[in-house]
Amino acid sequence: MNSVSYHFIRTHITDHVFYLTLARPGKRNAFTPTMVNEIRHALQEANTDTAVRVVVIKAEGPVFCAGMDLKAFENPEADTLNPDITNTDISLGAVIAELNKPSVCIIEGDVYAGGFLIFLECTYVFAKQSVRFALPEVRIGIFPFQVLASLLKHLPDAKAMDLCIRGTSFTASQAHELGLVTDFVENEDDHKIKMLIADLIMGAPLAIRKGFEALKQIKELAATDRYAYLLKVLHELKDSEDAKEGLAAQRDKRPPEWKNR
């Protein structure tokens, strides 16, 4: 991957896993335009790196993310620009949603406002039971419009709106009941997370990527066109090196050696 110095995040790769850590704990990991673009740059690298099979997102400090840094968004001079990154106006939710690889979000601190955009777009979400979640925007005269779009991927309209218009906090247990949290963990080294990552790495990376791409595409297609599209991509995948390797490995009773092509 390209060597870029980030101001607000840290990244590294270990054993096919790309780790992205929010690293602005002094500001409760509130994101600025530059921080959003750093996250986008890092995740684009992870998306295109064939060695990366899983993306893990976590955070430093007692707060996972307090949402957007309102001062930096209102006044660009309050932001710290990164000369290695080109800033574009993009939603943090859209940045995470661009991933075509399994993503695991580990939440060890409270989440507020726009911080929801990160975990709501991840494939799996693990949280400590002490974590609290809140969308307080309506209490300061604004509305979590972008979070609403992400919530609607998980909840019925009325329930998503309820979380947005009450402005009250709720527990990790309540988030789990709503289906927003996959499971509870004590820390990022929890056995549950390690077992999940091990399972994800065993799968054919090309097939998984094609699955994520198909999930996004079928939402844009008419119902009458979906199965024809899915049949087409299945035939394309069957001709891949990984599909042939998977069948050969099954026949030979050995672990497959994935090439991601």
From TrEMBL:
Domain of life where this protein originates: Bacteria
Protein name per UniProt: Enoyl-CoA hydratase/isomerase family protein
Gene Ontology BP terms: isoprenoid catabolic process
Family: Belongs to the enoyl-CoA hydratase/isomerase family.
Species this chain originates from: Sphingobacterium spiritivorum ATCC 33861
Entry EC no(s): 4.2.1.17
InterPro entries the record matches: ClpP/crotonase-like_dom_sf, Enoyl-CoA_hydra/iso, Enoyl-CoA_hydra_C, Enoyl-CoA_Hydratase/Isomerase
Region entry Disordered, spans: 241-261
UniProt entry keywords in alphabetical sequence: Lyase
SUPFAM superfamilies per record: ClpP/crotonase (SSF52096)
Annotated GO MF terms: enoyl-CoA hydratase activity; isomerase activity
